[in-house]
Amino acid sequence: MASPAAASLQQHLLFGGGDLPTASWKRAVSSRRRRCCLRREAAISCVQTEEKTRRTTVKNGADSLDICRVLNGMWQTSGGWGQIDRDDSVEAMLRYADAGLSTFDMADHYGPAEDLYGIFINRVRRERPPELLAEVRGLTKWVPPPVKMTSSYVRQNIDISRKRMDVASLDMLQFHWWDYSNSGYLDALKHLTDLKGEGKIKTLALTNFDTERLQIILENEIPIVSNQVQHSIVDMRPQQRMAELCQFTGVKLITSVFFLCDCLSDQRYGTVMGGLLSEKFLDTNVSIPFAGPPLNTPSLQKYKRMVDAWGGWKLFQVLLRTLKKVASKHGVSIPTVAVKYILDQTSVAGSMVGVRLGLAEHIQDTNAVFSLVLDEEDVSSIAEVSRKGRNLLDVIGDCGDEYRA
């Protein structure tokens, strides 16, 4: 039975309200972590992350995976961001890996992303030293339709990804589920856990799950290491209920950053909001037709709606000017500051930066994240503007609710 302090935390996480029972909560967390490390039957497993400058290791029990803290997001291969050339894309992936950006995030529905990774990893095996091969990671997602989650169905779909990516074991399988009223997600995750036991998956993770469901999953002893969520200076929802649960359990957050840095064609999404958090949109008015940069990608249109929900374009310009001041001070770009600010948030293990493979590259800009140190003045000035907007937890709901409205 949960301790009173743990029960109080559970109520706070799920329903909000009241102050956290700080002293007793810390004792409960410490006690719970000792129990979960010592006893396999504990409801929530012990998870730890070893923080380093460029790479981090997410762990849950015996499961562990080290990844680059800035991940290459391959969403753009799904269409809507330009024509994809297979050979050019693979060459670009090799350049990213050679530059130390060796973790790639994809999904079963991102067009040819998994196939491109399979070609890429074979090139690495043949043409690169073993040291680089040892650092390359391929993280994929499985987003099944709402059908019965049988063992054979789950196995069949995971085998498809393994074949496409040309790997015996998936480094990380990130699971998404559309309808919480259908509890089949627990069946799917239990079958995925079995496949992990067979060596077909190294680590299990989630994508766009809310706090309540993450807790339910952990209490069902599913060894989750991370949850991928939308997180930006405008959208700080993950730092509320989700971060509290992550601190309590050790599960880490991977944030969708997706910034595609090209001074002439800045098409970014996630932590830099589809490219809105960039110099390209500084001192512009997109409400006047043809007066500013076009919102011509699905991501730009999506995150413009997020800006409207947060506080509108006028307040967003205040944020951009603040970020520009910080960026100029450190000799970096606005997106670099935006990514670093989120990487420094509680429980964040990594952030994804979207890549337009074969079309535009941002290797130098991305690597600048690792040397950037935001001082107290920088952080305070950014946080001050962020807080002036609406709390999107109240407007939209918890993490992932924007996909289930």
TrEMBL record:
InterPro entries, alphabetically?
Answer: NAD(P)_OxRdtase_dom_sf, NADP_OxRdtase_dom
What protein name does the entry list? NADP-dependent oxidoreductase domain-containing protein
Q: Which organism is it from?
A: Colocasia esculenta
Question: What domain of life?
Answer: Eukaryota
Report domain NADP-dependent oxidoreductase positions.
71-386
Task: Please name one Pfam family that this protein belongs to.
Answer: Aldo_ket_red
Lineage in the entry? Eukaryota, Viridiplantae, Streptophyta, Embryophyta, Tracheophyta
The family database entries (SUPFAM superfamilies) matched by this protein are listed as:
NAD(P)-linked oxidoreductase
**Coiled-coil regions listed:** none
